[in-house]
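Example pasted here:
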Amino acid sequence: MLNRRQLFKTGIAAGGAALIVGRSTPTDAQNTGSPPTTAFVDELPIPAAAEPVRNLLPEPNPDAHQRYSEFRPQKFYEIPMAEALHSFHRDLPPTPIWGFNGTFPGPTFFERYDIPILVRFRNNLPANHVGFGIPSVITHLHNAHTASESDGFPLDFYETGQYRDHHYANVLAGYDGFPPRGDEREALGTLFYHDHRIDFTAQNVYKGLAGFYLLFDERDSGDETDPNPKAFGLPSGEFDIPLMFSDKRFTPDGELFYDPFDLNGFIGDKFTVNGKIQPFFRVATRKYTFRLLNAGPTGFTNLR
């Protein structure tokens, strides 16, 4: 039997699934492992696009955000965090997850540099929750150049029935209000947003609170037919596919399982892509853009 350090060095992986060998305890579902599932029978889900709303009630408070008038939002969103039943595989029963809009992954944001937005994340999670995770949240837009009050500081968490507005200026790092518009070497294209609550980030993200946030500019323009000579011409639209990888583990009854007392790093024995265990993907005979995100709790993933 390999110890965890040896396992990481060897990087065991095969056919989109991994065999994880590690320590076990009598109360740990690792004793029996997840129920068996058939590979490549469920189709790869593509997360829905986040849809803007006309207005927010109550209206956002401009005084709560830095440089709000300079980066006045051109789009508004309201995204609830809610519990829902989710099917990870046809061989397993639906199991409760937490998700933005009640889905895992959450809706994908399609945004552009220099177009500011404001997102209201509303906590609709069950207050009397039992099990792992905590219905006390704060959302972080991972790696974005965001003002501190909207960045998802881990201690800025709020409870069920409350909300928080996040102002995303969508500007390059180093922006000072004058040309140049910031450091283009710091341009980001594929980001993700997730819960960031202190001490519970791993549990809440594992439970489903994660989604993609895509930022486009004149180079990564989101249009493969873009005549701009600076444009990369990457496959776009239905051929631009975000892939969120996350390893999971399930109880013998098929319920999503997490061991919060595994302080060495919890590892699942089932690999999911966009919330499905070993899905298949129907492709055309052409090029694709694949955006790869490791949203798993601990493990390394070998892709091939």
User: Anything to note?
Assistant: Residues 4-294 form a domain with the Immunoglobulin-like fold (CATH 2.60.40.420). The radius of gyration is 20 Å. The chain has one domain: 4-294. Residues 12 and 18 are 6 Å apart (CA to CA).
